[in-house]
Amino acid sequence: MRINALVIGGAILVVALIVWIVYSSSAGASPIASATLSSTNGSGVSGSAHFVPTSDGQSTSVVVHLSSLQPDWVYAATIHQGHCLGPRLFILTGATGAAGGEGSSTTTVPAQPTSSWYIAVHASASPAAPLVACGQVHVTGAPGGYVAPSSQIQPANRIPVENQLPFQLPNGGLFPARRKAHYTRSRARRRAMPGPS
């Protein structure tokens, strides 16, 4: 009986340690951006959004809190560029209205927030539904914890090829070098052949 209590107590201690490590690595980070979401179209829905860098330094956790929601109704949330109806950058996890009209969602996006972002909340679970709330993102802190993704790091010795179309090969043609040479030789042979008399 005493051994079972020790095993259970040890298991609880290990779980508590894991929860503490996870919580301290992400929840301890302070928000670097926020948005106040104001009601649109007379909906009465309002709220806020906070942006916290994730522990990996390459993503952002977006936490959206909403009020005046319909109970058991799902509201889509999206991030747009430039204005509330600008080009959509990200679709966030929808917020479901609780009995008291409150709702929240947390989504991780693979980007760093900018002041040109807008958070839009939609009237249903569809991101195509009309807006019920929107607000501009305001960067409030220095994003010192972000790391540039490896795909954005360019080698120092990279030499740009000028006057080259994206679909064009470096030899200037649409064929690989050997194929182009073969095409040119066979074309020259066809010209040299005597035609029908």
Uncertain regions: pLDDT < 50 for 5+ in a row?
13-27, 148-180
CATH class of the domain at 26-149: Mainly Beta
- Read across the widest sheet, the strand sequence of neighbours is 5-4-7-8-1-2-3-6
CATH topology of the domain at 26-149: Immunoglobulin-like
Q: What's the total number of strands?
A: 8
CATH level-four homologous superfamily name of the domain at 26-149: Superoxide dismutase, copper/zinc binding domain
Q: By helix and strand content, what is the structural category?
A: alpha+beta
Distance from first to last alpha carbon: 109 Å
Q: Report mean pLDDT, rounded to a whole number.
A: 74
Q: How many H/I helical runs?
A: 2
Helix content percent band: 10-25%
Radius of gyration: 28 Å
Strand portion, in percent? 25-35%
Q: From the 3D coordinates, which CATH architecture of the domain at 26-149 would you assign?
A: Sandwich
For the largest beta-sheet, the strand count, sense and barrel status come to: 8 strands, antiparallel
Structure description:
The protein has 197 residues and is α+β, with helices and mostly antiparallel strands. It is 21% helix and 31% strand. The chain has helices spanning 2-26, 177-192, and strands at 33-39, 46-53, 60-67, 74-81, 88-96, 103-109, 117-122, 131-139. The protein has a domain at 26-149: Superoxide dismutase, copper/zinc binding domain (Immunoglobulin-like). The longest helix has 25 residues, at 2-26. The protein has an eight-stranded antiparallel sheet with strand order 5-4-7-8-1-2-3-6, with no helix packed on it.
